[in-house]
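User: Can you predict the 3D structure for this chain?
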Amino acid sequence: MTQKTIAFLKCFLASVVILTLSACATTKRDWQKANQLGTIEAYEIFLQEHPNAAQANKAKSLISGLQADEDWGKAEATDTIDAYNIFLYKHPQSKHSPQAEKNLELLRFENAKASDSIVAYESYLILHPKGFAFSDAQKRLRQLRYNSATEQKTVKAYEAFLAQYTEGSDVDTLKAELPALRLLEPSLILGREIMRYAPSAFVDRWTGRMVTERRDPTSEQLYNLEQKLSAGADPNAVRVSGFSPPRESCNPCASSTPPSDGGRHTTYEVWIFSPGTPGRIVPAEKGGMTLLEYCWKNRLISIARLLAEYGAK
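Assistant: Here is the predicted structure, written as structure tokens:
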């Protein structure tokens, strides 16, 4: 190798070293600048200019943390189930994730209490099996299920509750009532079926007066009712509790401003519509209107005659 070649190589290597040191110095300076600013934008600019730098992974980690902090601030400010769900989806490993989980659980429990429904409490218990309010939610869910079973007053509803719970005063109560309910249920079903034919009423938009719509049973529907009676449904075993029919009343009113000629006040009529209450079928010992009375009251003539044939009073 000639002296000239050796000299050239020395110059080349020296240039490489200088450029490398210069690049390192630039990277270090840009990294210090990004840290001083400490913003997402600063670290993103650093990564654009130095994608292969030793500090690249650290920059990415800091960006992720800053984005999580920013999104956490928005989630807290919004304070909704959707906001916390979105945050946890985007940042499952964030330092804020535990608090997001706590806030989310609290909101879900508050929602369950507000709606006070079986579905809401079931949802809470499924999503938070180790939640802080798990015991309270279980107790309220049990009470709601019991209330639902007693309101439905069906063998199916009672058996569903007893399949879920095996001990307790509520279990003892339903077990004691179940044999009688099995005997009463055909009559309850008959009563509920009859109530379907009660006329409905509404206010006509053009006249402002009440209009009644009747839905008399067809011969086939009457036959189905008769089949229930033949199978043992007792029309005297149940009654309709809380029923009141729709009605309208007229109130004559005087105009508030007397005529300019000094004559009498003008009178006009105001019709007031009351939708009534449908009532519900209950055992006869709880009182109410008999099925026969209910049918005559609602002009369900064909059903009333059928009930009378089977001893309805």
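Residues 3-37 form the longest helix (35 residues). Confidence is low (pLDDT under 50) at residues 12-23.
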